[in-house]
């Protein structure tokens, strides 16, 4: 046995001291080809430092072997030594047989650094040099896929599949294409590819995308079936619960939807949208106390979520909890960019609390946003008239009767006030 072979044998036995001795002897006695093979094997086993040391020793002997530079750079990148890796790669010139490989390594490096445009540039340069190399095409598609540029990734994946490439680097291209179509909003095309994937090959992510795609195609029964399978496989897959609940709602099964949202909240306690959805379904089931509970819990999670704030305020108004609503909204009304619904809800609450000047103030603030809303105008008109604001009342009445010409009562009020004026 060569020392290289002995080193690998010692490694299998876990004899570290013998391994180190054999490595030293291998460097002094084994052929360079054997050492290169040893470095490759050590790299695959994760012994990067020993592999790197051998590669560097060989590069000193063979300074024109650029393949050694790419191997060294690859290890340095994995160790986070980016600048050193780039130094080795920069030594590989465009006329080198390993230049394309160097570009690929650089592209991977820049992608890990989130310098995606530079990574794309390197891959496009490599493709220009070797346009028939599918590995380059695949790398480019993967870059587009990972950065959400699905419409760019789709034709590349499609072209590779048409060439008979179904798997590259353990990636199922049919799966990738289906997911890319789904994320690009091309659901009809997506489901055609996703349904080709054998159940045994479906990862949790693919099951999620398939269920989501069925949902977008309004095939709610299949969406439920797929998302339930995903829940059985991986109940901690938090993203499934909002969509499974939505599918049940579309199937007019609110009780099941509520159960799903409750499960989802236990899986992801910080997903405020789950609390909102659960509250919506509880309200639909006339369980207002439960809806209030979920909205309050969601508010603790995200006190600045405006959708939740409005829903909680709306529920306070509906339940006649006007003082609670005023107290609750006090912290938000100070914000100049607050939602105008807050003004309306405050106006309603103050009116019921018989604080008419405050109510009028908030109706005035809300008016620019709701001047085409008959319900709002009707409330404001009655309040302004009660407060003796005749001119403002007439102005709002004129607006209202244009929107609701069939409301005779309000038309008569306008006539009476105009006569009075």
Automatic annotation (TrEMBL):
PROSITE patterns: TPR (PS50005). InterPro entries: CellSynth/LPSAsmb/PSIAsmb, TPR-like_helical_dom_sf, TPR_rpt. The keyword Hydrolase does not apply. TPR repeats lie at residues 204-237, 238-271, 340-373. The keyword Repeat applies. SMART domains: TPR. This is TPR-repeat-containing protein, putative component of Menaquinone-cytochrome C reductase. Keywords: Repeat, TPR repeat. Pfam families: ARM_TT21 (PF25058), TPR_15 (PF13429), TPR_19 (PF14559). PANTHER family: TPR REPEAT-CONTAINING PROTEIN PA4667, TPR REPEAT-CONTAINING PROTEIN YPIA. It comes from Fructilactobacillus fructivorans.
């Amino acid at each position: 046995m060569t020392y290289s072979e002995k080193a690998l044998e010692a490694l299998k036995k876990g004899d570290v001291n013998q391994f180190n001795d054999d490595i030293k002897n291998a460097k002094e006695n084994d052929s360079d080809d054997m050492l290169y093979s040893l470095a490759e094997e050590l790299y695959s086993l994760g012994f990067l430092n020993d592999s790197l040391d051998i590669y560097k020793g060989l590069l000193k002997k063979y300074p024109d072997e650029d393949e050694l530079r790419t191997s060294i750079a690859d290890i340095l990148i994995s160790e986070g030594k980016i600048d050193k890796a780039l130094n080795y790669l920069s030594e590989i010139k465009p006329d080198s047989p390993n230049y394309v490989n160097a570009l690929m390594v650089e592209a991977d490096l820049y992608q890990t650094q989130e310098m995606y445009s530079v990574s794309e540039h390197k891959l496009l340069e490599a493709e220009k040099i070797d346009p028939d190399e599918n590995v380059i095409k695949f790398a480019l598609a993967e870059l587009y896929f990972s950065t959400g540029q699905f419409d760019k990734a789709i034709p590349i994946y499609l072209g590779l599949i048409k060439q008979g490439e179904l798997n590259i680097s353990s990636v199922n291209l049919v799966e990738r294409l289906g997911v890319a179509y789904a994320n690009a909003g091309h659901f009809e095309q997506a489901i055609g590819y996703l349904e080709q994937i054998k159940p045994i090959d479906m990862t949790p992510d693919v099951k999620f995308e398939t269920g989501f795609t069925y949902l977008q195609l309004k095939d709610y029964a299949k969406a439920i079936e797929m998302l339930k399978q995903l829940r059985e496989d991986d109940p901690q897959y938090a993203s499934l619960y909002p969509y499974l609940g939505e599918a049940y709602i579309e199937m007019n099964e609110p009780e099941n939807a509520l159960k799903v949202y409750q499960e989802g909240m236990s899986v992801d306690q910080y997903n405020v949208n789950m609390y909102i959805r659960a509250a919506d379904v509880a309200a639909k089931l006339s369980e207002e106390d439960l809806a209030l509970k979920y909205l309050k819990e969601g508010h603790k999670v995200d006190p600045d979520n405006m959708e939740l704030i409005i829903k909680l305020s709306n529920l306070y108004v509906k339940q006649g909890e006007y003082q609670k609503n005023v107290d609750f909204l006090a912290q938000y009304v100070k914000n100049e960019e607050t939602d105008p619904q807050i003004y309306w809800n405050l106006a309603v609450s103050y009116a019921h609390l018989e604080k008419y000047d405050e109510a009028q103030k908030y109706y005035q603030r809300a008016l620019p946003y709701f001047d085409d809303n008959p319900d709002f105008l009707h409330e404001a008109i009655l309040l302004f008239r009660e407060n003796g604001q005749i001119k403002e009342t007439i102005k709002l009445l004129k607006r209202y009767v244009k929107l609701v010409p069939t409301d005779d009562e309000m038309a008569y009020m306008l006539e009476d006030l105009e006569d009075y004026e």
